[in-house]
Amino acid sequence: MEQTSGSKSYLISIVMVAVLGGLLFGYDTAVISGAEKGLQAFFLGGVGMASDAGFIYTDGMHGFTCASALIGCVIGSALSGLLATRLGRKRSLILAGLLFFVSALGSMYPEFLFFERGVPSMSLLVVFNIYRVIGGIGVGLASAICPMYIAEVAPSNIRGTLVSWNQFAIIFGQLVVYFVNFLILGEHTNPVIEQIGRGFNQVAAGSDPWTITTGWRYMFGSEAVPAGLFVLLICFVPETPRYLVMVGDDKRALSILARINGSAKAQEILSEIKNTITEKTEKLFTYGVLVIFVGIMLSVFQQAVGINAVLYYAPRIFDDMGMDKPMVQTVMMGIVNILFTLVAIFTVERWGRKPLLIYGSIGMAIGAFGVAVTFGNASLALVTMLSIMVYSASFMFSWGPICWVLIAEIFPNTIRGAAVAIAVAFQWIFNWIVSSSFVPMFNMTLDGDPHFGHWFTYGLYGAICVVAAFFVWRFVPETKGKTLEDMSRLWGKKA
What we know:
The chain is mostly helical. The chain has helices at about 10-45, 60-85, 90-110, 120-155, 160-185, 210-220, 225-235, 240-245, 250-260, 265-275, 290-305, 305-320, 325-350, 355-375, 380-395, 400-410, 415-440, 450-475, 485-495; strands spanning about 195, 200-205.
């Protein structure tokens, strides 16, 4: 019996499973924020802990350890195109979930099999970072393939909305892990780290030993729960119809399309897919250089506008502003981020991709310039905080979700896997550049002015936001309402 109309419940169920990969993306990247002080104290030797006599844990080592997952993110995103093409979208997501699971358990107990528990050493530090890199590879895969999966199963009229839910899941995953870390910490306190020389520290006497020996382990290990659930659920979702056509399985592709769109529409979509997929893959530049350039620059601008400098260092920023409870302001910003991500979800199909990106870029520029002008002036502290909120909120309804929508949409079917991999790899590279350069820029001084770095940093981000708005206006095509097959025709004309 033919299915005359598509099943919305079926579509939503498989998209929500894929979106869980976005939640894991946010969870894995943010879990370090709550665990890093306990982790640092552990490798410093804690208070009265046994340690390798020749091992000295420096600030440089700690900085690398906190960011080591980003190495895996670059690797995972770079491999995502190959894996998405060779293994398929579904099996690649299963692999990502398994990597999240292994990383969570390995980071919780890096001594497993080879080391004595609770004795920090260089070898143990290397193993711990390997587990974090493994998790980063999972993040890199999920960041590229989750939006690709959603885009390839979603009907064109709601594709932008459904892909935007992936960004919501990322932000929600970060918020979830903040609360999980808070609950794990409970009545305990983070250790106090004392500087004893440039780049060298020690754990202050009286620091809570539980957070040094155990707390950080539970925080990392908590990720195993959503990771295990993701691996289980992803086994029950179908492969994407577009991938199935690429591997010659038209019958299964038509069946899935019919269940999502209805029988008549399914046959029409299948014909469009087959017309644009004449072979499994084409050379990367088959459709010209411009489409690859646009995809890369969307990723570059999403990071170069500086948002992760705010998300990763929010407590430090609010503390430097003189706020009494910087974590309260951080939570407030997290709630604002969630609300404005919802704005994108409910307007992307009505307003289109380009307007949201342009308006968001302008809003971010206003917020960044507001921070640059007012930072350090105690009488304008409220204006500074509101400017940061405007900056962050503007990102959340524009570059946050819409960049992922466009990266999932703009590439033709036959180069999508490789092109998305390249674009997302650039995203993680610039994530690392922005994250690692923020603190040195923020702390710069000029002629004794302690606030020079503050206005320079946010002035630079504001200028990049203006350039981003121009780039979108001039080079980025509007994809609202267009099928993925339309992209082949669009870029084919420009090539």
